[in-house]
Amino acid sequence: MSISTKPPPEARAAQADAAAQRLKGQPVSAIDTPALVIDLDAMDRNLHRMAEFAKKHDLRWRPHAKLHKSAQLARLQVQAGAIGVCVQKTSEAEALAAGGVRDIFISNEVIAPMKLARVATLARNLGSVGGRLAVAVDSMVGALGLAEAMAAADGSAGRLTIDVFVEIDVGQGRCGVAPGAAALELVQEIERHRTLVFAGLQAYHGNAQHLRSVHERRDAIAQAVDAAVRTRQAIEAQGIPVGLVTGAGTGTFALEAASGVYGELQPGSFLFMDADYAKNDPDPAQPQFDQALFVKTQVISVAADHAVCDAGHKSHAIDSGLPVVHPLPGDPALVFENGGDEHGILRAAARGGPLPTLGDTLWLIPGHCDPTVNLHDRMVGVRGGLAHGKIERVIRVDARGAVT
Predict the structure, then answer these.
(1) H or E element: which one contains 299?
(2) Superfamily of 102-267 according to CATH
(3) How many angstroms from the chain centroid is the CA of residue 217?
(4) How many angstroms separate the CA atoms of 335 and 323, rounded?
């Protein structure tokens, strides 16, 4: 009988973490490929610009942690002035809470009883350490299920509550109750339950974030603002205060800020940026952010008309398009083409242009930052530039695979 000498998954993960931590202080060349790398100088600039914008406009900001899925980076954002973070999944909230994040908004609907029980437990646990949990609701079923789960978690104490934001559809056509009367009816139902506290409106327009022209984005957010105003007026006409309107993303947050309606901003991608956001026409009303997230890759094969690198779809998401090659000074201009799961095809940007040589290092800008992060266990933070910088920290993706 053969006996496997392969260590269990937990041991392998611990070994990988230990090896990653030993990278600290080493040059960029020590990073194996493919790897997800953060330019910490660029990330810090982005963080400072967002914090300054929110402070200047006297607005709360609650960055979306579904971008980085990291408790370490969430805590860094709170230290910079964020009120807390948003997540989309119950398991994301659990992972970040386990990492010391204390103010979390699940800006998404939770319906399944087993998930609602987890939400209630997390609300109780965060409350016990002075933290806060909020959740979005867009249906009577969701409100009633949440109320029942909170009551079950509370037992006979009669003190456990959770903040609830009613999500309205402001133009995305995804989640959200219709603005106006339908939203008011849902708010009135929430008000009937001791365990639920109506905290305001979730009014996020995701599709507007990637409209290319400033004019298109301005028109879309104008409609979102109108829906939020009409809904707030309908609710307040019944004597129910709307404590907060929250929403906005990296592509439009200056528009929501200028509306005078939103009291909290939720942009997330600004911290890293990606190739898709780079296609947007810049809005002079909001700060510009630097590319801070890259996939380091190496050329592993060369032919007459192309080269091949070791970063395929398993290293970067392609839902918003293929990555862009980020040339460092002196590097040839290249175009990335689909090479499958494990490979990327590289061609010269200009006909007859030079190709990289075997073993060369290249840097890719992912098409979409959020799902790219979810493909990696950790991110390597580099200080001093991609060419000559040193590894300052290794950041765990705590909520990788947190999809429930």
Answers:
(1) strand 293-302
(2) Alanine racemase (3.20.20.10)
(3) 20
(4) 9
